[in-house]
Design a protein that fits this description.
This protein is of the alpha/beta class. The chain contains 9 helices and 16 strands.
Length: 310
């Protein structure tokens, strides 16, 4: 009985599309290694809040240098594993020698890791705007340090902004793994292909979903449970969804969306719009308009919103 189960589990039909055959020494990227890379990135971007807590200004350059060196080494290895999973078109495949191909991929992985690290100062600058937005938008926040240390949105955005840069660089698989790590840690699901501007924040955070083709402007605020999703999926001749189509919302600058609102489809929510809690939106909204659910209580119109209020 057990032998028959092994035979069935090992059969080509059973495994079709469900397994990855490794070349010698080329495993898939490691979730454990990626976790260390993210911890290093957090310590580099926000030293003293992550990693070693005993950071001193006179030794910070040394500590960041050590972390950067370690991050580059680990990231090169993980990008190499990703490249072996799905080799980009711009890598020369004319020489079929496996050792040569591995060396080409290794050099390319090291180059991509260096390019990502070169982007860390800009990533820090943008994340600083996100920290400021979270602080200014929450009366309960007592300091920027509290935002950096405690708020799940910052952890999720560190992962997202690093993953987004890796995606732009053409790194396969790893960007999605990094954002899914943040999804598991914080409950915030941001696809690495989404485009998000500066001064972005999510209050509370749990249950937020931001789809792959979303475009979000500057100074946008979401509350828990918000979905920026797709309303329909065009199908090909075989009845399967066509990939690569822009199908998620565009949020212009200064938009606020309250708890558990659902915004679907390739629609545009204009500058300065406010969407109340538990609202379903599938059509464009003109700039500076509002959409709420209302309930009459004692002949009074109550505009419901969750969080700190409009």
């Amino acid at each position: 009985m057990i032998t028959q189960a092994v035979d069935k589990l090992s059969g080509k039909e059973s495994l079709k599309g469900l397994y990855h055959e490794h070349r010698d020494g080329d495993p898939l990227p490691s979730a454990k290694a990626l976790e260390e890379i993210i911890e290093l990135a957090r310590a580099i971007i926000f030293p003293g809040f992550y990693g070693h807590s005993s950071v001193k200004i006179n030794t910070i350059k040394y500590q960041i240098g050590v972390n950067v060196e370690r991050m580059h080494k680990l990231l090169s290895q993980q990008i190499l594993a990703g490249l072996c999973f799905s080799t980009p078109e711009n890598i020369d495949n004319s020489n079929t020698d496996e050792h040569y191909q591995r060396m080409v991929c290794l050099d390319y992985a090291s180059e991509l890791a260096a390019k990502l690290i070169a982007r860390l100062p800009e990533i820090r600058r943008v994340l600083a705007t996100d920290v400021e937005a979270a602080y200014n938008g929450d009366p309960a926040a007592t300091s920027l340090g509290e935002i950096i240390s405690c708020y799940p949105v910052i952890k999720a955005l560190i992962n997202y902004r690093i993953a987004h840069e890796l995606l732009i660089l053409g790194v396969p698989l790893i960007p999605r793994m990094i954002t899914e790590m943040a999804h598991s840690e914080t409950g915030i699901d941001i696809h690495p292909a989404a485009t998000i501007g500066e001064y972005f924040t999510i209050d509370h955070g749990t249950g937020v979903v931001i789809g792959a083709t979303c475009i979000i402007g500057n100074n946008v605020k979401l509350y828990q449970g918000v979905t920026l999703g797709a309303i329909s999926f065009p199908l090909d001749d075989n009845g399967n969804p066509i990939k690569g189509i822009a199908r998620h919302p565009i949020l212009e600058d200064d938009v606020v969306i309250y708890a558990n609102a659902t915004v679907l489809g390739r629609i545009t929510i204009g500058k300065g719009c406010v969407i109340g809690a538990n609202v379903w939106v599938t059509r464009d909204m003109k700039a500076h308009t509002r959409k709420y659910n209302k309930e009459k209580i004692n002949n009074l119109d109550i505009e419901f919103n969750h969080g700190t209020g409009i």
